[in-house]
């Protein structure tokens, strides 16, 4: 029996090779794997010893040879294949152990060049894996060091059954599919191009406590470059669930849209509190005052390192998760006193967390779109009313407009002094959302501003807003009744701006 070993990740390979020799295998290897085995005094041949052809092009070509692929692909139960191998002096290869160049790790570096990335595209490895996988009834293919232990016990004591071989082959093809997808995504770059074919390349980070409900199982997968919540380090607290991940992601995206120190409190992926202030602890207090009832059991996100004052401000409230780039030591010590609080440090990844494509599953397929991550230019907004917003109102309008993007449509946001006062989220009509936002703001709506994620089709929403003291409105515009709505705003003494951009979030 012959085993071909060619691995980049050499975890456990020497011990596995030693066990294979003990089971009667002849070892053939390449490059660095050969050197690792020889250093432990294991008997192993180089690929060039059996092909009679040296590695060329600096190692780019070494296993792409008929002696290798004939030995892998020959069907043992087809006599013509067996006879041809005999005529050409080619021996069969019964076990292929391969894992690939670290392409994903290479492109994760900020300073990687195109040349370095291309040099780390493995060619011979995927070819051997695919060949062995195609012939899995006769050839065992291994790509994961986690399989070494059980396989070394099974080989030689029993014939691997077809289910085991099939599972290893499936795992091998998935390994190559992920590898090719990562390369494709890298070459796609930041274009956001949506082509005729789509593969999704994700690798499991960890299993979750459960899905949306306890009877559902769930796992968390990431792209090759881990950013945002996928790249977060959990510093404290219980295991994360599916809903925890969704809410933490919504919280991190909310604060990532702001350049100023910002705090968001999220409940069911909607911000129930959001505030900007130069003093972080004050930003937190203002965010909390946006909806103290809903804040209980929520997720808090900061876009700056959490300081001791902010940690102290949170001490009396139960939260599920706190998310931030980092935590200073004193703040972390305070927060860790809450036994079950999950503390996530995401690093400085606000810019890279802006994904270029979004994928959403529906029954029978997936929807793909470019992400809603345009740069907002308030100077391009149009004042469509007789009254222009004051500078304070304009500041609040920009704050509220950014916040509305993170609220489920139909979305209405009320804000004042760069703090969220109330939201109306996920309602079937926009007037209901206005009602809910005003109710949440209570007496605070007087003198506030309103942002709507899409146009007002009728004046009724503005009329309700003006009745409750709202002074300025920002909305996309674009309704066939825009003039009727503008006339109503003028009659009510409102300042109103059109952005020309819509931010539905379904």
From the alpha carbons, calculate the radius of gyration and give it in angstroms.
30 Å
What is the level 1 CATH name of the largest domain?
Answer: Alpha Beta
Number of helices: 19
Strand order of the largest sheet: 8-13-12-11-9-10
Number of domains: 3
Low-confidence stretches: none
Return the average pLDDT rounded to an integer.
88
Structural class call reads alpha/beta
The CATH topology of the largest domain turns out to be Rossmann fold
Give the helix proportion (percent range): 25-40%
The main pleated sheet reads as: 6 strands, mixed
Q: What's the architecture of the largest domain, going by CATH?
A: 3-Layer(aba) Sandwich
Q: How large a portion of the residues is in β-strands, by DSSP E?
A: 15-25%
Name the overall outline. Answer: elongated
Give the termini separation.
58 Å
Q: Work out the number of β strands.
A: 21
CATH level-four homologous superfamily name of the largest domain:
Methylglyoxal synthase-like domain
Structure explained in plain terms:
The chain has 19 helices and 21 strands. With 506 residues, it is an alpha/beta fold. It folds into three domains: 2-188, Methylglyoxal synthase-like domain (Rossmann fold); 235-345, Cytidine Deaminase, domain 2; 379-498, Cytidine Deaminase, domain 2 (3-Layer(aba) Sandwich), CATH 3.40.140.20. The strands form five sheets. It has a six-stranded mixed sheet, with helices on both faces. Strands 16-21-20-19-17-18 form a six-stranded mixed sheet, sandwiched between helices. It has a five-stranded parallel sheet with strand order 3-2-1-4-5, sandwiched between helices. α2 links the parallel β2 and β3 (45-46). α4 (66-73) runs parallel beside α8, α8 runs antiparallel to α10 and α17 packs parallel to α18 (460-467). The longest helix has 27 residues, at 162-188. The protein is elongated and about 95 Å long. The two termini are 58 Å apart. The mean pLDDT is 88.
């Amino acid at each position: 029996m012959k085993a071909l070993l060619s691995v980049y990740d050499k975890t456990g390979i020497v011990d596995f090779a030693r066990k294979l020799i003990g089971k009667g295998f002849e070892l053939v290897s390449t490059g660095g794997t050969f050197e690792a085995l020889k250093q432990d005094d294991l008997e192993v041949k180089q690929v060039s010893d059996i092909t009679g052809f040296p590695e060329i092009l600096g190692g780019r070509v070494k296993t792409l040879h008929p002696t290798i692929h004939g030995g892998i692909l020959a069907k043992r139960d087809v006599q013509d294949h067996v006879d041809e191998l005999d005529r050409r002096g080619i021996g069969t290869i019964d076990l292929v152990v391969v894992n690939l160049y670290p392409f994903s790790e290479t492109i994760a570096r900020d300073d990687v060049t195109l040349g370095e990335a291309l040099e780390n595209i493995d060619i011979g490895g995927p070819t051997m894996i695919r060949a062995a996988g195609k012939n899995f009834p006769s050839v065992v293919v291994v790509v994961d060091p986690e399989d070494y232990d059980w396989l070394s016990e099974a080989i030689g004591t029993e014939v691997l059954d077809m289910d085991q071989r099939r599972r290893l082959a499936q795992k091998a093809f998935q390994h190559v599919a992920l590898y090719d997808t990562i390369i494709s995504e890298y070459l796609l770059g930041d274009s956001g191009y949506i082509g005729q074919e789509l593969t999704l390349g994700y690798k499991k980070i960890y299993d979750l406590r459960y899905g949306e409900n306890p009877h559902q199982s769930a796992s968390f997968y990431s792209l090759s470059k881990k950013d945002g919540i996928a790249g977060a380090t959990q510093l404290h607290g219980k295991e994360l669930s599916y809903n925890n991940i969704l809410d933490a992601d919504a919280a991190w995206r909310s604060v990532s849209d702001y350049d100023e120190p910002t705090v968001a409190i999220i409940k069911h992926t909607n911000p129930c509190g959001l505030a900007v202030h130069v003093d972080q602890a004050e930003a937190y207090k203002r965010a909390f005052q946006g909806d103290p009832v809903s804040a209980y059991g929520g997720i808090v996100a900061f876009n700056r390192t959490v300081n001791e004052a902010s940690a102290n401000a949170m001490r009396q409230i139960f939260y599920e998760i706190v998310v931030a780039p980092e935590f200073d030591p004193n703040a972390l010590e305070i927060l860790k006193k809450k036994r079950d609080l999950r503390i996530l440090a995401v690093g400085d990844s606000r810019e890279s967390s802006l994904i270029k494509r979004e994928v959403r599953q529906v029954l029978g397929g997936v929807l793909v779109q470019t992400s809603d991550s345009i740069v907002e230019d308030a100077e391009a907004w149009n004042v469509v009313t007789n009254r222009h917003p004051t500078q304070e109102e304009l500041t609040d309008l920009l704050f509220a407009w950014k916040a509305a993007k993170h609220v489920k449509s139909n979305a209405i946001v009320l804000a004042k002094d760069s703090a969220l006062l109330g939201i109306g989220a996920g309602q079937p009509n926009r007037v209901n959302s206005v009602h809910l936002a005003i109710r949440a703001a209570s007496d605070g709506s007087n003198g506030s501003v309103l942002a709507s994620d899409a146009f007002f089709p009728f004046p009724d929403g503005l009329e309700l807003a003006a009745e409750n003291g709202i002074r300025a409105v920002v909305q996309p515009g674009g309704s066939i009744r825009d003039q009727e709505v503008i006339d109503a705003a003028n009659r009510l003494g409102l300042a109103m701006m059109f952005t020309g951009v819509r931010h539905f979030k379904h």
